[in-house]
Design a protein that fits this description.
The protein has 122 residues and is mainly β. The protein is built from 1 helix and 7 strands, in the order H-E-E-E-E-E-E-E. The radius of gyration is 14 Å and the shape is globular.
Length: 122
């Protein structure tokens, strides 16, 4: 039996919370997470894994200690493990994240209101 297509628009219609990634698919040990972002996140790094940001709608800024990049729709960036970064968006961004199962969205930063629950499927 062939797999069922997954439509980003259908999945985004299921939630409005920002900075709370939702798992929509899994491949081996990697999760594909959708997230809505607006405003500033916090500085953090992931010591043990790279993190992939793919912008579907909007404009995402990724600040690094030595500069910044801006991603628009259809663009992506891979943040290498251990590299401190801070995502931000002036207006809402719809984003696909790809990262190993179990990665905490706030990385090495102290847990707080921006720390999302893991494995929330939509």
């Amino acid at each position: 039996m062939p797999p069922t297509p997954i439509r980003f628009t259908d999945k985004f219609a299921l939630f409005t919370e920002q900075w709370q990634p939702k798992v929509m698919a899994e491949m081996n040990d990697y999760q594909f997470k959708l997230s809505r972002l607006e405003g500033d996140f916090l500085w953090h790094a992931h010591a043990d894994t790279d993190e992939t940001f793919i912008v579907l709608e909007g404009t995402l800024r990724l600040d690094f200690r030595d500069g910044a990049i801006t991603l628009g729709p259809g663009e992506m960036a891979v943040v290498p493990k251990g590299v401190e970064h801070k995502p931000s968006a002036e207006a809402e961004v719809k984003l696909l994240l790809i990262e190993p199962r179990g990665v905490v969205n706030t990385g090495d930063a102290a847990a707080g209101e921006r720390t999302a629950r893991n494995d929330v499927w939509i």
